[in-house]
């Protein structure tokens, strides 16, 4: 199985995370392999959700598993948020593209989503609580909105050093990649 697709995480502040994702057009074996590889990457990184841009793909795909139980695993292709409702609640969120940074983010309690499974079946579902929050977080990624944009000014200040570390790390890896290309 050496040809198995494996993704690495794209970390802040890579511009890849800011590019809006585009609709998936073909529902084929490649798409199923991509979704499976995204789920593997998410589990490996101990995350509960992951989006296409976070593995360098400009594709409207998100995967999640709020509990880690096999039956709760979901891969959603071309999702459309139909509605956000219910009270706004604050809850601490992390993001695989922002290692070790956690901040309280305000989200709606409920969201309604239309999407396709990797096999091309259309589904429409209401998510609330933790799954609803993950969906709204991952959906943000598809339009280039990041955890840092949702943080309160106080949290931004509290995480200033960690955010600057990520920027410095990104610049270092860019430099060594450019050197290797020369
Ligand atoms: Zn995220």
Terminal residue distance: 33 Å
Bound molecules: zinc ion
| Computed Rg | 17 Å
Strand line-up in the sheet with most strands: 1-2-3-4-5
Number of β-strand runs = 5
Largest sheet: 5 strands, antiparallel
Query: What is the helix/strand order?
Result: HEEEEEHHHH
Low-confidence stretches: none
Structural class: alpha+beta
**Average pLDDT taken over every residue:** 96
Q: Helicity, in percent?
A: 25-40%
Tally of alpha and pi helices: 5
Tell me what portion of residues adopts beta-strand conformation. 25-35%
* Structural shape: globular
Structural description of this entry:
The two termini are 33 Å apart. Strands 1-2-3-4-5 form a five-stranded antiparallel beta sheet. The chain has helices at residues 29-44, 129-142, 147-150, 153-158, 160-181, and strands spanning 49-51, 61-64, 74-93, 103-116, 122-128. 34% of the residues lie in helices and 26% in strands. It is globular, with a radius of gyration of 17 Å. The relative contact order is 0.17. The protein is an alpha+beta fold and 182 residues long. The protein binds zinc ion. Zinc ion is lined by residues 95-97, 137, 141, 147.
